[in-house]
Amino acid sequence: MAPEKELVQLIGFWGSPYVLSVRWALKLKGIEYEYHEENLLKKSPLLLQYNPVYKKVPVLLHNGKPLVESLMIIQYIDETWKQNPLQPQDPYERAKTLFWAKFAHEKCIAPMVSSFFKIGEEQEKCVKEACEHLRTLESALEEGKRFFGGETIGFVDIAAAWMGCWARIIEEILSVKLIDEEKMPRLIAWFSNVVEVPALKECMPPTQNLLEHNIKFRKFLVAAAERLQSVPLTGN
Amino acid sequence: MAGDELILLNYWISMFGARVRIALEEKGLNYEYREENLQNKSPLLLQMNPVHKKIPVLIHNGKPICESNIIVQYIDEFWNDKTPLLPSDPYEKAQARFWADYIDKKLYDSGRKITWNKNKEEAEEGKKEVLEIFKVLEGALGDKPYFGGENFGYVDISLIGFHMWFYAYETIANFSIEAECPKLMAWDKRCLERKTVAKSLGDPKAVYDIVLKSRKIKGLD
């Protein structure tokens, strides 16, 4: 059976970690794709057409058919291209993988990201919540294992290990502590093990660029909040 | 399969627990149902779901699976010889997951604005959001009998548990889902005709009574 001509396109933003995780999946599977950079301040008609519900990146187009939400895109990629499987075959192990990817996204990454959009007490609350759940994630990592599932890179790694880099950026800009060197040694080792994989390292945007972009973004958010409140905010 | 031990830890009013009950029934599986008192969680629940300490939890031969949509996917994958709940085509599967995820992200929180409202404004806001979500879902349903097409499946299972809460939403926020979203209510009636659904859902009026009692205890009324 002749292979169908595959057209794979990714609509993304260079600074988005969710887009990065999809790029990681495509890279590990050896899938060629066209990349379209989106200006998030002026979303294209294409993006609004292909993701009318959330209007966000990443959007994967496979032969013109859209897929959205990074975790679900990665699942789709894994199920459509069978080489280098990212998820375990066993249903129980798959369920565990999905559980931890969901936990990482909803309980660690979400409050971390939220903290960036907040100030004062609300920001502190988000940071505290993120730290608490990061400690749970730490305990889910097994001592001595290179990746989340073992010695082979997999779903949870590419879904979430990028959070180490973004956590450091948030820490620097907000002057908060998310990653505790003493309490989270396994997390720190895991972040580094994943990000140092050559194929994945190639896709990483330069940390300096991410830092500069997010400093600007934070200034913009603070200024917008100040305009609403019409008093200057204390803190970062 | 002979020798499979299945235990479901649940609280009957949970729209999430309902998903698992329906999936087990659709697959014709025998299981032990254990009602949890969420004010006094059992040692088994705390042991089997130490991360979230929540129901539903499915325990299969001693191994726990948590998070309702993950449990339903597990049930579908493990007992893959009968009554498929998810489509086999990867793209259609992705679509099904998308809508179940949308329901998870949106409906529960907006519904809570109604049931646990601190004032009329919050209830009204919840009502508007819930109706918006229902309209989007009606769009996804289209003219099909079920979300996946001709057969009852994953997205239907994801949503139908909320049926138990419709009466509470309508009564507290004073509106009629039928009047605003007749297509969705037609789908709702269709699903309730299935034995697997009817036996898995609690009585909506009983759910409403529990909400009222809880509201009094929380000092909201």
Automatic annotation (TrEMBL), chain A:
One Gene Ontology MF term: glutathione transferase activity
Domain GST N-terminal span(s) in chain numbering: 6-85
Catalysed reaction equations from the record: RX + glutathione = an S-substituted glutathione + a halide anion + H(+)
GO cellular component terms, A-Z: cytoplasm
Gene3D superfamilies (alphabetical): 1.20.1050.10, Glutaredoxin
SUPFAM superfamilies noted in UniProt: GST C-terminal domain-like, Thioredoxin-like
Protein name, as recorded: Probable glutathione S-transferase
Annotated source species: Fraxinus pennsylvanica
Source organism phylogeny: Eukaryota, Viridiplantae, Streptophyta, Embryophyta, Tracheophyta
UniProtKB/TrEMBL annotation, chain B:
Annotated GST N-terminal domain residues: 4-83
Enzyme Commission designation: 2.5.1.18
One Gene Ontology MF term: glutathione transferase activity
Domain GST C-terminal: 89-220
Cellular component terms (Gene Ontology): cytoplasm
Superkingdom of origin organism: Eukaryota
Keywords: Transferase
Catalysed reactions, semicolon-separated: RX + glutathione = an S-substituted glutathione + a halide anion + H(+)
Top class in the EC scheme: transferase
One example of a Gene Ontology biological process annotation: glutathione metabolic process
Similarity annotation: Belongs to the GST superfamily.
Name under which the protein is recorded: glutathione transferase
Organism: Fraxinus pennsylvanica
